[in-house]
Amino acid sequence: HAYVDQLRGDGTNTKIIIAANKSDLVAQQQLTPDQIKQAAAKLKAPFYITSAKSGNEVEDLFRHLGQLLVA
Question: Which uninterrupted H or E stretch holds 7?
């Protein structure tokens, strides 16, 4: 959390997206989707729970990132 505050406090228009990968490995996940959602809400950041293996949410994540970069 301190890193986010530092990034946002540097005077630039820093954009943050939380990407939680390996959604296909449910048994090995260390955080629940609710915990990720809560962390994202605290940081006021969008979040995506992705899987590189299945491609789940990956395209949406990069589309959102691209929109932030050109905005």
Answer: helix 2-8
Cα-based angle 64, 68, 71 (whole degrees, multiple of 5): 135
pLDDT, tens only, 10-50:
767 788 899 988 887 877 888 888 999 999 998 889 999 99
Contact 20/50 with Cβ under 8 angstroms? yes
What is the three-class DSSP state of 71? coil
Cβ neighbors of 21 (< 8 A, separation 6 or more) are 50, 51, 52
State the CB neighbour count (10 A cutoff) for residue 48.
20
Strand partners, 18: 47
* pTM, entire model: 0.76
Whether 8 and 14 have beta carbons less than 8 Å apart is answered as yes
